[in-house]
Amino acid sequence: MTRKQKRLAIIGGGIGFLTAAVLLVMFAFSQAVAYFYVPGDLAKAGLAPGTRIRLGGLVETGSLKRGEGKTVTFNVTDTLGTIPVTYTGILPDLFREGQGVVAEGAFVAGSSVFVADTVLAKHDETYMPKDVADRLKAQGVALGGKENIQ
Amino acid sequence: MIIELGHYALVLALATALVQAIVPIAGARRGDRALMELASSAALVCALLVAFSFAVLTFAYVTSDFSVRNVWENSHSLKPLIYKISGVWGNHEGSMLLWLLILVFFSALVALFGRNLPETLKATVLAVQAWIAAAFALFILLTSNPFARLIPAPGEGKDLNPVLQDVGLAIHPPLLYLGYVGFSVCFSFAIAALIEGRIDAAWARWVRPWTLAAWTFLTAGIAMGSYWAYYELGWGGWWFWDPVENASFMPWLAGTALLHSALVMEKREALKIWTVLLAIMTFSLSLLGTFLVRSGVLTSVHAFATDPTRGIFILAILVVFIGGAFSLFALRASRLKSGGLFAPISREGALVLNNLILTTATATVLTGTLYPLVLEALTGEKISVGAPFFNMTFGLLMLPLLCAVPFGPLLAWKRGDFTGVAQRLFVAAAVGLVVAAVYYYVMNGGPVLALLGIALGVFLIVGALTDLVLRSGIGKVAGSIAWKRLSGLPRSAFGTALAHAGLGVTLIGIVAVTAFETETVVEMKPGMTVDAGGYTLRFDGMRQGRGPNYTEETGHFTVSRGGVAVTEIWSSKRLYTARRMPTTEAGIRTFGLSQLYVSLGDPMTDGGIVVRVWWKPLILCIWGGALIMMAGGIVSLSDRRLRVGAPTRAKRPARLALGAAE
Amino acid sequence: MLFWILVAILTAAAAVVLILPLMRAAAPLSSPHSHDIEVYRDQLEEVARDQTSGLISGEDAELARAEIARRLLAASAADTGIQSSGPKSLRSNRIAQLFVLVSLPAVGLCLYLATGSPGVPAQPLAARLANAGEDINILIARAENHLAANPGDGRGWDLLAPIYMRSGRVEDAVAAYDQAIRLLEPTPARLGGYAEALIVQSGGLVTADAQQALKKSLALDPNDPRSEFYLALGLKQEGKQQDALAAFRKLAGNSPADAPWLPLVNQHIAELSAGQAPAGNTMPANPTSEDMAAAAQMDAGDRQAMIRGMVDSLSAKLKENPANFEGWMRLIRSHVVLDQRDKAREALQQGLKAFPATGDQGKQLLALGRELGIDADGEEE
């Protein structure tokens, strides 16, 4: 190979690799990201059952049923809509009724129950997931006393 | 008064940094040595002032001086002393002061140990460091002043978040910052090279120890952070692809690339422009990480400081430094002459491949981290990009790199012999496959991909050792000669081997945990048992306890194997009384390199409790590998050659530490 | 003062260290390429070492040597091209010195004065605890620490509750009164305080909880004026004008003629009697700050400290401006009420200096002294 050919080979290989990487990233974005919803949006979203989403909102006060097995159920609400959620496992330390929560999972086909495989609360007790806070604020829900919310 | 003196010292440090930012540059332009020498004195003064200021803040924490707002907000008189101290950097203001302290600390190191650098380069590097220091000092004083007072002083503090009350977290941020901020020196070297319009092989050698040091610290910081999340959060996970983790991982990837490209530049004077660009990019990613974490644009498990005015200030710093650096690069890069040529199959070729893959992988992580933010800003749509995305993209991209790693050190510079190297690595590959097969037998099966992963890890380790064996000629020449050759090898050869082997160890840990971990969630009553990883856990009951600032309920488990009790595990849920905040203290027992991990859930109405039990095979390899990589960095750093360059003292043994201080 | 001296020393020290290199006669600049040349020489040595130890072949070594030699030559050539610059004029150093001397204090002081709080001392907790003095926050913290360790100490809660109330921590006050009542016995003072805290917490409304506590208090002491007052106020808020009027009248009837709350009670009575006509306006009337103040006076024990503070300030005012006959009368009376007979006597003497005993007002002061059982000693002659 001449010098020029060598250089072309290197540049060509590099561009080929980068193209492959870009395609991979685009593919991953279409497959492996979860959209965020609050209960009020779900009615009009028309999700196919089994689509992975993140569901955010407040844990409805009085809805948490724990202590009856390893599966807990609770309702996530944004005051416009309420979604029942089941979760098997150990809830985060800061999971509390009336506090913000994000559950990741999917709806089971033919049911309105959201089955979560991950439940996130936050280190800080005044924490409210940013997404949730934004949506709730947009819907005019007052968040009394939570100055830390951005 | 001492508090105000600390505050004034910080202000004076800013003034000193301003002098350091301006005068040496003028000196370098005019060739005036006196003006350039001011840079070193100023860097030392600045470091002392910031260190004093930091010590004063620490003193305020230790003495619980609640007339300092920051202390009141983040401390409590009943907190154990070590957490009073770690509380200094457990909050936004204090951590920014730590950031600044480490920055000026590195400047001082350049001033002290930079004797081998040409005067103009050293002066310019220190001036660029001072620009950064001045910007951050101003940021701290104007938007995040840790010395703001509160009069009248409250009688008691508001405590530190108990999740952050942990030894791991006490050490984690300083290590991480030592890495993050250490790359500022590389950045300053790059900017100085662009300003001087001169860059050559020697530059690469001078910048190398700083890259190595920063990389080693960052490796330690990331590993420590990962281990902290693993044992403290109680979720059993060790890496979450959380934006804050990514923020520290991206500079690490780019820094690793920089480490390798600087090698090519030093040996062959090639990849000069690319190396300068990488140095700028690496620190830009550090700044971006600081912005992401400190501005509150993210909400993630780590972000505990949020204030939009701060965000805008940091964004301004980000734009000025990154934008300025890239503009300078665009203006000056054409002046830098590019260097030697090489064949695709050669050491250089392998290192270019390393750079190509590492930077692409960095870009992937960057995309995955920023895409949700950009999408939200543009369309208002909210998505979460988590582990599935990164595993698919980053994981796949890294595969060819991992396969190529053992080839690099074996290939000759300029033009290499691929088939020859492949033949030499045949043994390593064979060993890898055999180990995987044995593992398959022991584990009674498993996914084929996981076995290939284990084989790859072993291949990396044995391949790294192969390099040392071949270079010393073990097995070919007499033992004594081989030993002599081995001990004659440059330290950096051992560093390379250690780092590459460490990568293999980490890979084995990741693959084993991902593929073979078991997780069981059960409700247990005293006397019940659960199996995990060949061990049987019997739940013996709960017990109440009390710590200095918390109460806890501890579950006791007896672990047995084949009916014989081997050990016990305590797992607890704590309630920190000052904030009424619960935390989970997972019970972890180590068996060789594997661990049993038990965390408690909610008590049941009928007296039982939900228990989550993980068996984590070979999980310690993940962090053990990181430790080995760090050891590689340290060994490399001790290489004598890194200190060469001082014309007057070159023949003397390298004892720069003392010599430069005079 | 010491602080500013230290600031000056710190600034001066920094400036001196920065200026020192500028004062020295600069050694000639070593050529910028000499450092590179050292690196390349070292690389050559390394190649030789690798070759002797057999790490690289002779051919490779030659190639590497040729390449390094090229770099070495280039660096040396560049070096000879540069004129070693002679000693620079001292003028640039002067400018730099001036810059250091001006910028350090200027930037330092301006920014510090903008962001700092000079003169505020450090306040380590241990020192504050040892010498609490007037530091109300420390007194509270000390009590809180004690109570965190001994949550069953009812007397502690009892002491802390009114202090919370005074420093505006109403919710803590409610909790503390609650603890005190639970752990000790309910007394009119505690129940009244509890009710008062509840009322403040609810923004001035006499809530059902508060009413319950007040009724309990009245059951223990039917003549507790504070409880009667708030209950009457509650009735007024509920729009039960007649009942409220009756309750206020009863309170007025039971109160001594010089009770400090009497004017306010009478005001309510007047309002209610007049308000009979515009009965439509039955919006619950929140207690005014006067209401709270009047009620506060009904609880003499808790407010002792506050009264003392007021008396002290009156005394200070009179020292500055003694020509205040009313002031002296009040001060003497107050001291007697606080059982400070010495101070009362002292005040009487000082008052007599301003208003001699021969005058009308002096005679009134003496009469007051006799009435209260204090004599002005030698002043009578």
Write the layout of secondary structure elements.
The complex is a heterotrimer of chains A (150), B (662) and C (381).
Chain A: H1 3-31, E1 33-37, H2 39-45, E2 53-59, E3 71-77, E4 82-88, E5 100-107, E6 114-120, H3 130-138
Parallel strand pairs in A: 1-2, 4-6
Antiparallel strand pairs in A: 2-3, 2-5, 3-4, 5-6
Chain B: H1 2-30, H2 33-62, H3 69-74, H4 81-86, H5 92-113, H6 119-143, H7 167-196, H8 201-232, H9 243-268, H10 272-295, H11 308-332, H12 347-379, E1 383-385, H13 387-404, H14 407-410, H15 418-424, H16 426-443, H17 448-472, H18 479-488, H19 491-516, E2 518-524, E3 529-532, E4 535-546, E5 550-561, E6 564-576, E7 581-585, E8 587-591, E9 594-603, E10 609-616, H20 620-637, H21 656-659
Antiparallel strand pairs in B: 2-10, 3-4, 4-5, 5-6, 6-7, 8-9, 9-10
Helix pairs in contact in B: 1-2, 1-6, 2-5, 2-6, 5-6, 5-7, 6-7, 6-11, 7-8, 7-9, 7-10, 8-9, 8-20, 9-10, 9-12, 10-11, 12-13, 16-17, 17-18, 17-19, 19-20
Chain C: H1 2-23, H2 32-52, H3 58-81, H4 90-115, H5 125-130, H6 136-149, H7 154-166, H8 170-183, H9 188-201, H10 208-220, H11 225-237, H12 241-254, H13 262-274, H14 289-297, H15 300-320, H16 325-337, H17 341-354, H18 360-372
Can you give a write-up of this model?
- The complex is a heterotrimer of chains A (about 150), B (about 650) and C (about 375).
- Helices cover about 30% and strands about 25% of the residues of chain A.
- Chain A has three helices and six strands; from the N terminus they run αβαβββββα.
- Chain A has helices at about 5-30, 40-45, 130-140, and strands spanning about 35, 55-60, 70-75, 80-90, 100-105, 115-120.
- Chain A has a five-stranded mixed β-barrel.
- The relative contact order of chain A is 0.15.
- By secondary structure, chain B is α+β, with helices and mostly antiparallel strands.
- Chain B is built from 21 helices and ten strands.
- In chain B, α7 (about 165-195) packs across α9 and α17 (about 450-470) packs antiparallel against α19.
- Chain B is globular.
- The two termini of chain B are about 35 Å apart.
- Chain C is an all-alpha fold.
- Chain C has helices at about 1-25, 30-50, 60-80, 90-115, 125-130, 135-150, 155-165, 170-185, 190-200, 210-220, 225-235, 240-255, 260-275, 290-295, 300-320, 325-335, 340-355, 360-370.
- Chains in contact: A-B, B-C.
- At the B-C interface, α1, α2, α6, α8 and α18 of B face α1, α2, α3, α4 and α5 of C.
